[in-house]
Amino acid sequence: MPEQQTITLTVNGRVHTKDVATRTSLADFLRDQLHLTGTHLGCEHGVCGACTVTVDGRSARACLMLAVQADGREVVTIEGLKDPAGVWHPVQKAFFENFAIQCGFCTPGFFATAIELLGQNPDPTEAEIREYLSGNICRCSGYQAIVEAVRAAAAAMQDHQRG
Amino acid sequence: MKAPVFDYRAPRSLAEATAILRDAGPDGRVLAGGQSLMPMMNMRIVAPGVLVDINRIEELARLDADGGTLRVGALVRHVDILHSPLVKAGWPLMSEATAYVAHPAIRNRGTTCGSVAHNDPAAEHPSVLLTLGGSVVIASAEGRREVKAEDFLQGLMTTALEPGEMIVELRYPPVRPGTGWAFVEFSRRLGDFALGGAAALLTLRGGVCEEARLTLVGMGEGPVRVTAAEALLAGQRIDEGTAPELFEAAVQLARRAVDPTDDVHAGAGYRRHLAGVMARRALARALLRSGRTHHA
Ligand SMILES: Cc1cc2nc3c(=O)[nH]c(=O)nc-3n(C[C@H](O)[C@H](O)[C@H](O)COP(=O)(O)OP(=O)(O)OC[C@H]3O[C@@H](n4cnc5c(N)ncnc54)[C@H](O)[C@@H]3O)c2cc1C
Ligand code: FES
Ligand code: FES
């Protein structure tokens, strides 16, 4: 069945088996078939970054991946960022506290990108943050608050590690 | 917009992939990172009948050096190049250029071979392959062939690939000791496609230039090697005293070598000016780094 396939993947820790049309993007699959509408679609050609999710530990544009390509993979969306006790991820908390969210359309993509950055570089400079986030567009916030939020998240995560 | 319907195949081996491509003929298309193909499909600029997803062919993920030659398999992602100590040590021009390719999420999936197959005139990798004198290994159900970069890159998003064929790896010969390198680029926003850029290599021995390479990016239908400037620099003593005049002559030749057009991003006159600025910066930086030895 080349135009329809059954896939099994893990999304936010839960295993799903679903039939998908092969042309369905991962973003549309997450939104329409799993009803995880936190993954936003701005441009559908990789430019805006709103749809960025984590696939096998790396950030990826969900609009440029087919759902069938996620077969056997592990996907994390914004809905999966809270810990099992329901506590926000430090990046979520820092965005909230630093007023880095206005309409929130771009936010899920910024989270995925910022979390990847802090995983690789726990104490990034402002320039490094701006460089890493360069593929995510925000039409409201003016970026300054977002950069401050990522710095705050980095500090919080380091404090947490030190105990 | 959404991609049109296609027949999706995800072979597990190269032999299986080339068999599918043979049967599909002109209707078949390789899906690698999808970072250029998926946008084109979503915008319905292309509508392949058979999509051959190579992401599950593990043998294509190889990144290694074979007798001094760097081999970059079709599943090596931009991020793998960026973080490879092997590439940084032996082919630093490539590491430097890759930092300009797109943004992290796109570098996590996009492949170097895919960039070369796509051959966007503003893309970094085709120019790097050309500058380093690399080649492209192509496979089909009939066998393999190796094509030099200058023969593979045939113009605006056009290459020597025939229906039924795919790239299996790129090869980069060793860079000679004493070679200075630089990749420079200008874009409005970091990670965007280049408005213009340049790659340079200067091989110096005892202060004399044995070989020069200069390639411009984003100036026309594809990467442009400024062979006139290369010929001018070869054999010259290049030092702080002579460099300004020599590089100025190279800049003039660079501006003459390109034939940019107006588009929404920049006018032709601006781009021609930029060609010179980029050439000068690349040569100056390559000179600073020359004489330092680095090995594959
Ligand atoms: C927002 C954005 C910004 C970008 N910025 C840049 C940039 O600054 N510089 C840059 O160079 N690129 C940029 N890109 C493109 C990116 O680098 C792509 O990864 C690259 O151009 C194509 O590689 P891919 O593996 O994604 O190929 P795909 O998208 O999968 O394929 C592209 C084309 O190449 C063909 N192809 C791929 N692999 C093979 C193969 N092994 N054999 C035969 N044919 C093959 C496909 O059939 C298709 O025609 C950007 C992309 C986006 C979305
Ligand atoms: S919707 Fe995917 S990058 Fe814009
Ligand atoms: S908060 Fe509105 S687009 Fe970023």
UniProtKB/TrEMBL annotation, chain A:
Give every 2Fe-2S ferredoxin-type domain span.
Answer: 5-81
InterPro entries under this entry? 2Fe-2S-bd, 2Fe-2S-bd_dom_sf, 2Fe-2S_ferredoxin-like_sf, 2Fe-2S_ferredoxin-type, 2Fe2S_fd_BS, Beta-grasp_dom_sf, Diverse_Oxidoreductases
Q: Does the keyword Aminoacyl-tRNA synthetase apply?
A: no
Membrane-crossing ranges are none
Could you list this entry's UniProt keywords, alphabetically sorted. Answer: 2Fe-2S, Iron, Iron-sulfur, Metal-binding, Oxidoreductase
Extract the CDD domains matched here: fer2
Pfam families linked to this entry: Fer2, Fer2_2
Keyword Metal-binding included in the entry's annotation: yes
Q: Which GO terms describe its molecular function?
A: 2 iron, 2 sulfur cluster binding; metal ion binding; oxidoreductase activity
Instruction: Specify the protein name.
Output: (2Fe-2S)-binding protein
Please tell me the species this chain comes from: Xanthobacter tagetidis
UniProtKB/TrEMBL annotation, chain B:
Q: Keyword annotations for this protein?
A: FAD, Flavoprotein, Oxidoreductase
Q: Which domain of life is it from?
A: Bacteria
Q: Which Gene3D superfamilies match?
A: 3.30.465.10, CO dehydrogenase flavoprotein, C-terminal domain, Uridine Diphospho-n-acetylenolpyruvylglucosamine Reductase, domain 2
Which SMART domains is this protein grouped with? Answer: CO_deh_flav_C
Query: What InterPro entries does UniProt report for this protein, alphabetically?
Result: CO_DH_flav_C (IPR005107), CO_DH_flav_C_dom_sf (IPR036683), Diverse_Substr_Oxidored (IPR051312), FAD-bd_PCMH (IPR016166), FAD-bd_PCMH-like_sf (IPR036318), FAD-bd_PCMH_sub1 (IPR016167), FAD-bd_PCMH_sub2 (IPR016169), Mopterin_DH_FAD-bd (IPR002346)
List the molecular function annotations (GO) for this entry.
FAD binding; oxidoreductase activity
- Matches recorded under Pfam families: CO_deh_flav_C, FAD_binding_5
Occurrences of domain FAD-binding PCMH-type (ranges): 1-177
The stretch of residues making up the signal peptide is none
Q: Under which name does UniProt file this protein?
A: Xanthine dehydrogenase family protein subunit M
- Organism whose genome encodes this protein: Xanthobacter tagetidis
Q: What is the lineage of its organism?
A: Bacteria, Pseudomonadati, Pseudomonadota, Alphaproteobacteria, Hyphomicrobiales
